[in-house]
């Protein structure tokens, strides 16, 4: 008889005294990581990166698995009594204790950067994502801008400290040297001859961003870019330009991208309408450009979410009635009971959701 079997009678006995609560609900008061219902993490350290960004280290509870370099996780925080979720890239080396680096843009990121302290509890989902290092060693090019550096930083930390055959060219765009994330660490790593070359492209000094509408900047900065596996993470315009350029150069198969926003069609918003959240007993008027996910969160509804890009399927909610428009395709659809991706759907008339 294994240990779990021996403990079951004790758990059943304990439940007699804790009903209607589960025994772990009381254990959580002593150890906040003990919950079997919701994965949590304890903040262990907060490092200030810039005046408006911070790296938050945390110790996850059971249910977490070691992340691969480049992956992300959903992070939940309670704001004004409502649990809000956002997805953040994990910035420590693959397999190491996790951390996220957050820039204070939006209510959740503002709270994380300016109000998080050691000992605080974060709500978590396990690491996920396919923006990861190639299986076999090869020369790499990393093109990033702003917070797009965060998943790539995990890759850099994984490679240059563990692989003697690392060959990484990193081109990072930032507005100023002071706001360039990880600038000192990157320059230090590059100076140690660990196979890393860093090109900081400061738009405030150059007057423009690194240009991917032609090959001029690439040819001047990384002449062998066509032979490298390339990872791109940053603003949508930057990613779109990279896709077009690599396609024109017939090396699109060597391009790996990470988007922080869904691909949507121009002018593909729905007509808008009243969105009713049945279980939450709330409703709100939403225009044709506001996703059902954003509409729910703005109304104080605890909405399931994940990548917020239409990829991970974590935001699925049953449709009770009404029609919605998919921002990626412009298609209007809606059958009773159909699961709707709320992060990429808008109201095409009145909508009733089972949440």
Automatic annotation (TrEMBL):
UniProt entry keywords in alphabetical sequence: 2Fe-2S, FAD, Flavoprotein, Iron, Iron-sulfur, Metal-binding, Oxidoreductase
> Which domain of life, per UniProt?
Bacteria
Residue ranges of domain 2Fe-2S ferredoxin-type in the record: 273-355
- What InterPro entries is this protein classified in? 2Fe-2S_ferredoxin-like_sf (IPR036010), 2Fe-2S_ferredoxin-type (IPR001041), Beta-grasp_dom_sf (IPR012675), FAD-bd_FR_type (IPR017927), FNR_nucleotide-bd (IPR039261), MRET (IPR050415), OxRdtase_FAD/NAD-bd (IPR001433), Riboflavin_synthase-like_b-brl (IPR017938)
**Statement: the UniProt record of this protein carries the keyword Iron:** yes
PROSITE patterns, per the entry: 2FE2S_FER_2 (PS51085), FAD_FR (PS51384)
Give a GO molecular function annotation for the protein.
2 iron, 2 sulfur cluster binding
Per its UniProt record, the required cofactor names are: FAD
Q: Where is the FAD-binding FR-type domain?
A: 36-134
Q: State whether keyword Iron-sulfur applies.
A: yes
Record protein name field: Ferredoxin-NADP reductase
Tell me the organism: Lapillicoccus jejuensis
């Amino acid at each position: 008889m294994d240990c779990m079997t021996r403990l079951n009678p004790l758990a059943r006995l304990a439940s007699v005294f804790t009903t209607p609560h589960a025994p772990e609900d009381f254990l959580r008061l002593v150890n906040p990581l003990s919950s079997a219902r919701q994965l949590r993490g304890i903040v262990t350290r907060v490092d200030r990166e810039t005046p408006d960004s911070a790296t938050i280290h945390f110790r996850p509870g059971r249910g977490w698995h070691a992340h691969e370099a480049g992956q992300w996780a959903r992070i939940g925080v309670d704001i004004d009594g409502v649990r809000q979720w956002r997805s953040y890239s994990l910035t420590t080396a693959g397999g190491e204790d996790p951390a996220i680096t957050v820039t204070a843009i939006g209510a959740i990121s503002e709270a994380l950067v300016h109000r998080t302290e050691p000992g605080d509890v974060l709500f978590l989902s396990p690491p996920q994502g396919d923006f990861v290092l190639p299986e076999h060693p090869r020369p790499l090019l990393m093109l990033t801008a702003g917070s797009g550096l965060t998943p790539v930083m995990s890759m850099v930390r994984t490679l240059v400290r563990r692989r003697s055959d690392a060959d990484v060219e990193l081109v990072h765009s930032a507005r100023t040297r002071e706001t360039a994330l990880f600038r000192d660490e990157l320059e230090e790593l590059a100076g140690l001859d660990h196979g890393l070359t860093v090109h900081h492209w400061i738009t405030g000094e150059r007057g423009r961003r690194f240009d991917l509408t032609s090959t001029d900047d690439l040819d001047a900065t990384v002449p062998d870019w066509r032979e490298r596996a390339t990872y791109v993470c940053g603003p949508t315009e930057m990613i779109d330009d990279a896709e077009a350029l690599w396609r024109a150069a017939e090396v699109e198969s060597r391009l790996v991208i990470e988007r922080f926003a869904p691909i949507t069609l121009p002018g593909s918003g729905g007509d808008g309408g009243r969105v009713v959240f049945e279980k939450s007993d709330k409703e709100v008027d939403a225009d044709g450009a506001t996703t059902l996910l954003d509409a729910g969160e703005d109304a104080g509804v605890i909405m399931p979410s994940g990548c917020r890009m239409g990829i991970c399927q974590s935001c699925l909610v049953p449709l009770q009635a009404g029609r919605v428009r998919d921002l990626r395709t412009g298609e209007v659809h809606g059958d009773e009971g159909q699961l709707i991706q709320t992060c990429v759907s808008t109201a095409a008339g009145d909508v009733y959701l089972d949440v």
